[in-house]
Design goal:
Length: 343
């Protein structure tokens, strides 16, 4: 009996929902699940239609390209954050790791593209592994561990840039710079890389045993352990993945800006968490999908772009609107979750 229950818990939410066959409660449960999964997408489409009708420049090629590029770096960070939050964790270090990855990539670019890419991945990935080890093996709270990592990564960043006074530049003629500045079929290479990563992330989370472990740990950690799932290894892996994504996003951003800017990344962890939650992933863990996180990122960027196009509003309104929207989404998720349990 225990084995059957835990196996059901380890299936992705979509599989568990499809197993319910009641015509009455099942229909309401499926509606709630669809609202959680596709609500952000519907909101994004409505916002884009409204923006295109209100502003003639919204659907221009230049504006869409700028939104896509600016979304790509946050989206890569949000991809790693999705895995962490599905397990019921949180990672506050990604903003500092993003900035650190950019500086390391810019410094390493003088030694070639391979060093420029591998160095931030190695350092940021190692910090992610340390986060995972402390959380999984020592039982420390993810909030405290990743907060310490955020401060530590920012300290390393300041140390290698002489308190932020030194800016490392990337040779504009290098192959590394082309990764951030060139385009393919009119779309920037960072956007293509982001799309490829999200496709891979979706396959890993929904179609692999590791993805089942991620859902199981977030849904019921004790049940997952009883069934033999590698709980500690899964946690270490998702935090390592989050660090790798943050480092890669920082490296791509450095290639785009052809420099390692030390002041970037402040508040990015909150943006990534907001995008993931807006996309339908539950902060309590056990439910989520990477496509929703991508939609959440795009929705935040559309809101920011609309505020910029209004012109008369200060940029601070972006944070106000994003915060208010996040609050509404969390309340809606809570209500839908309770409704599904009642049904």
């Amino acid at each position: 009996m225990t084995t059957d229950v835990t196996k059901a818990e380890m299936r992705p939410p979509a599989v568990r929902q499809g197993a319910e066959k009641d015509d009455g409660p099942g229909r309401g449960d499926r509606f709630s699940a669809l609202a959680q999964q596709h609500g952000a997408l519907v909101t994004l489409l409505v916002a884009m239609v409204a923006a295109s009708l209100s502003f003639d420049t919204f659907l221009t090629g230049d504006n869409l390209e700028n939104m896509a590029l600016s979304s790509a770096f946050l989206a890569v960070v949000a991809l790693g954050m999705t895995f962490v939050i599905v397990t019921g964790g949180i990672d506050l270090s990604v903003g500092s790791l993003f900035a650190l990855g950019g500086v390391l990539a810019a410094w390493g670019s003088q030694y070639g593209t391979v060093v420029a890419l591998l160095l931030p991945l190695a350092v940021c990935g190692l910090i992610g592994v340390i986060n995972g080890l402390l959380i999984a093996r020592s039982g420390l709270a993810p909030f405290i561990v990743t907060l310490a990592a955020m401060l530590g990564a920012r300290g390393i960043l300041l140390a290698i840039t002489d308190e932020g006074s030194r800016t490392y530049l990337v040779d504009k003629d290098s192959f590394f710079a082309t990764l951030g500045q060139d385009s393919l079929l009119g779309i920037g290479i960072p956007v293509w890389i982001t799309v490829a990563l999200f496709v891979l992330g979706a396959v890993v989370l929904r179609r692999t045993r590791f993805g089942q472990y991620v859902y199981a740990v977030g849904g019921n950690e004790d049940a997952a352990a009883l069934m033999g799932a590698p709980v500690a290894r899964t946690k270490i892996t998702v935090y390592a993945l989050s660090g790798l994504c943050a480092g890669l996003a920082g490296a791509l951003n450095a290639a785009w800006l052809v420099s390692g800017v030390t002041i970037l990344g402040s508040g990015m962890e909150l943006e990534a968490i907001s995008a993931v939650v807006i996309g339908g992933t539950l902060l309590s863990g056990g439910f989520g999908f990477v496509s929703g996180s991508l939609v959440g990122v795009l929705l935040l960027k559309v809101i920011q772009n609309v505020i910029n196009q209004i012109g008369s509003l200060d940029s601070a309104y972006q944070q106000v609107v994003s915060g208010a929207f996040l609050a509404v989404v969390v309340v809606a998720q809570t209500w839908l979750g309770r409704r599904r349990r009642v049904l």
